[in-house]
Amino acid sequence: MNNLDMNWQKTLSLFQGKLDDYGLDKITFDSFFTTLEIKDIVGSVVTITIDTKWSLDVVEPYLTHLQEIYNTVTNGHYQLHLMTEEDFQKSHVHQEHLLQFDDHLNPDLTFDNFVIGNSNRIAQNASLAVAMKPGVSYSPLFIHSNSGLGKTHLLNAIGNYAKKRDPSIHVLFTTSENFVNEYIQSLANHSMDEFNYKYRQMDILLIDDIQFMATKESSSEIFFNIFNTLISNKKQIVITSDKPPRDLKGMESRLVSRFSSGLTVSIDTPEFETAKAILRKKIEIENVDYPITEEVLDFIATHFNTDVRELEGSLKRLLFYKLICGKKLDIIDLNFALEAFSDSYSQPAQKKELTVSNIKKCVADYYNLTVAQINSKSRTSSIIVARHIAMYLVRELIEDISFIQIGHEFGGRDHSTVMKACHKVQQKLEKDMNYRQAIQDIKKKLV
Question: Into which family does the record put it (predicted)?
């Protein structure tokens, strides 16, 4: 006997002990109440069946008492729903039909062909963990990054991996935009019960680009309720966005709070090594049967690495150019690649000479400050941030400059102050994607 049945039998036993209080006799209890069967729990609703409509009419007046006892036994807040066995079977067939849906997973997006690097390793590890044990540790899992860095790939990989391990599992991949459209359609068709049932039966719900649900109050309300039901039933929710939960403008604060209650991870722009590995994987998938030199891969990984889509697009362009203009070539070398990208790439201009002065000026301009403010003794937080970044960039970009020299250039500060500033910047770089992006933007302006 499972826990569901045990709890129900305890409920009936306690109910039987109070028959006199309810004005019932043992014959009535044995004839009608012992035929009650607990069938299902969906959220906070417990479905109980009885054999006939006549029996249902006899038992129904006492349902409130049964519900009170059941909640005492389970220490829960459940609502008992009583129906005939015949009606339950009809409803069950209908519900099973509702779960014959397209999961919308892309079978080509798996963990096997997801290229792992320092920029996405944590997100990949977390995704694999929830795919292996849905709903156990990290629900919800919230993945954020700029567009084109692999969030959608990881969502599909989670679903495909989980379904391979257990084909009976209910998995649904959808975008927040599709969720809203389906909700609106359900309202128009008066089929909200079916909409609610389908989403609340998911074992793994994968929602892409949640930011598009911001400001849509009615859709947010229904999603909030579905979210709570799945989490309370220990199901797995994975959400992606172009920004972390706290930065989702227009999103209800209670949803932001729920999103933040699980595990939040980010994906950064691929570094050179990861970008090159992605190119190799794409070449393998495309079954390219002619060699491409390492110089070409280095060139693309260096100049077209904003995101994975840009890398893919650059490779497709190169292969197309080879098909059209390089039919007689046995190898794609750097000269051919430069020709293929001639209208979108030009040889870099000679680098500007970096000095402490132009680094401070660049940082000051970026933060709408003056160099005098950066050199000052001001402890205003915005000025401190800019000052520390300027010190860090001077140390990183100018060769053979000492902490003592940097301190002298920044208003005669002690070398230990400079060391602490650089250390703080390095720590924030490892944890804060927005901070890291700001420094990258400043570097681009400098070089």
Answer: Belongs to the DnaA family.
The SS3 call for residue 48 is strand
Residue 310 lies in a domain: yes
Helix (H, G, I), strand (E, B) or coil at 264: strand
Structural domain includes residue 94: yes
Pairwise CA distance, residues 445 & 441, whole Å: 7
Q: What is the pLDDT of residue 329?
A: 82
Same domain, 334 and 370: no
Whether the predicted pLDDT of 94 surpasses 80? no
Q: Is 215 annotated as a binding residue?
A: no
Q: 429: domain range?
A: 356-446
Is 229 annotated in some ligand binding site? no
Confidence band of 345 (pLDDT split at 50, 70, 90): low
Is 152 annotated as contributing to ligand binding?
Answer: yes
Residue 317 lies in a domain: yes
148 is known to lie in a ligand binding site: yes
Average the pLDDT over each of 12-16, 179-183, 431-435 and give the range with the smallest value.
Answer: 431-435
Identify the pLDDT of residue 406: 92
